[in-house]
Target: Acetohydroxy-acid isomeroreductase
Amino acid sequence: MIVRGDRNEVGKLIDGFNGINQIGVIGWGSQGPAQARNLRDSLKDTGINVKVGLRHGSSSMEKARAVGFTEESGTLGEMYDVIHESDLVILLISDAAQVRHYREIFGAMKPKAVLGLSHGFLLGYLESISEKFPENISVVGVCPKGMGPSVRRLYEQDSGINCSFAVEQDIDGDATDIAIAWAVAIGAPYIFQTTLRDEYRSDIFGERGVLLGAVHGIVEALYRHFVSRRDVTVCDAFRMSAENITGPISSAISKEGILGLYNSLQIHEQAIFDIAYVTAYNPSKALLQEIYDEVASGNEIRSVVMAGDRLKEFPLGTIDATYMWGVAGRDVRESREKTGEPPIEPLTAGVYAATMMAQVDVLKARGHSWSEICNESIIEAIDSLNPYMHARGVAYMVDNCSTTARLGARKWAPRFDYAVMQQILVRYENVRAESNSLILRFKNHDVHRALATCQEMRPPIDIAVA
Model:
């Protein structure tokens, strides 16, 4: 099921939130500030109160007050008090925190309340320890196809980010309406139905794959490859790798699809793309299948939970302090007005497209829907995440995401870097692609039709990233 949203249909929003007098938004990480403000703005003058709940003494209290949530107005309070008061509890604290505190959170919720999740991580954890959600609450998911800052930025541009929705548990028959109303109120133009299990598997997998981890590893390896050529400057190497993916390659895919990217190349460039694609597809797919298996088995979820404990002693380090990002990337960004957008580098395009297509194939083999596959492998990358790397570098993209995503990107990016350097580029010169069945499969793949349909539902404007 696909639902078209319109947050200006206030009467329908009120109907969808029937029985909901207060929405508690718990947490102020990546999604919390965006969803709380979008809900507040969409539900202004409806009588539905949007209240932010944070830990007592949290440093985020001041951030919430700065954008208008206050104790005096009844829109800001202590986390468990807000959970207990609210009819819809949107739980947006970190995944590791959800795992640590889920028993207390469930205990604080009033009977017949609705628990809202923007990620199915908690379901995955409960399944791994053979536990379930309480039987006296409904459980729904609304999962924006982009990081929190994008959710707010596009809302402010009178647009929005598409969402998936899922109903995991419905005790009174109202859960579907509430989930759809929630998605519409945070600005989703289109809402795609999924299951919470499929959502968390595709999401955790996708951010370790082409959305974050893979693209980081790919551009690092390709940058070093281009730098090693004597006729290429460090700035040109950056333009041929990172700037190429976030600029002309993403733009071409966003507007014309992956096949459109291919068709935009000259014949001699297509020959280079073909070789790169054929060389990259199998190593990428093998690594992506490993990631999916790690997620589906619960290993990746346990890894995040254990990392949450280590982060107290060893906080996440920076990922953009190298010369590539700190000097070359900065100089390229500062010179854009003078140099313009670089031409598409076919080697980079072939490696990136092969990784995308491998991710598509892994998800399809695991039974995911085309809408989920296109969003988690292509659309979220080019329309939501890559613009952040284009604006300020890889850290601005990765570290605006959830802790789970940040951990996964740091863990798996080096594996993709290794695959490109040790498995792909070393074979690149010795592959004959013109008769390879992989290229024929790429050209005739069903994803091109599915992506064309999904792209009809993309936001009418590109995200503006400062």
About this structure: The chain has a mean pLDDT of 94. The two ends are 35 Å apart (CA to CA). Residues 40 and 50 are 6 Å apart (CA to CA).
